[in-house]
Amino acid sequence: MQRPPVLFLMGPTASGKTDLALRLREHLPVELISVDSTLVYQGMDIGSAKPSAEELAETPHRLIDIRDPADPYSAADFVADAEREIAAIHAAARIPLLVGGTMLYFKALLEGLASMPPSDPEVRAAIESEAASHGWPHVHAQLAQVDPALAAEIHPHHSQRISRALEVYRISGQTMTALRQQQAAAGGGDFRQRFNVQQLALVPRDRQVLHQRIEQRFEQMLQQGLVAEVEGFYRRGDLHRNLPAIRAVGYRQVWDYLAGELSYEQMQERAVIATRQLAKRQMTWLRSWEGLKWVLTQDIDGKPLSGEEILRFCLNSAPLGAI
Asked: Which tens digit of pLDDT belongs to each residue from 147-162?
């Protein structure tokens, strides 16, 4: 039997993935599933570049606004939710189009999640004590010594992922990377066997173009009221900076500004730098990704391609033709 199709649209932040996905839906029988670790949170609209209410009403995105910021969302949660939504879309005789930039979620869906040892409160407490004394970058450096591949994927301030990765190593004596490799060797993750997966990566030829878009977009977010949006979370009383939602790029820097730890200008600068670093990590993931079809947003001379030109390329590409 022919495997049912699933389409991935990946790319770095500010590359135009959402706009392209909306255009594709006008020409293909696709339904959109968001692959974004920030868009899952309710009320985090401006800083996540969430599609407008009008866009969502016209083109619904699944897995948007499904969690309160106080309730952390994990890769395992995403895999379970995405599998359910993919099945529902196929049942309606439509094609799932998964669009976003959270590469860990795409990877977890494709390869499955390796079996990890259960959490040990004493080991976790010891790691958090080290972080309290020396800072999370210091703990991240320890992780880099034992599992450099995983450390390269994790931001030095992403406390939850750093803590869990180091905890797994101290409990089992094996790194998360090694455990994932063992799972893959044993045939773990059958997503590609079950589905006809076609993968597109939307990227600019020139990194400077992406940097300019990142800077312009953050300025727009500030003009649209990002500080007020974060202030609403800041004043709730049940949220703190170590939650995954608050650690999101842009939100973390505005939170520090509201806490009086950064000036307005420092907040702007650090948010833009952090977003550029995020884009760099996303590109690193994509360069090592198997089976991608690259969709460039500039021609060979560096001239920006129009939305229609990019759309036409996608519609005429071999993967979409196969679907």
From this structure: 998 888 787 877 888 9
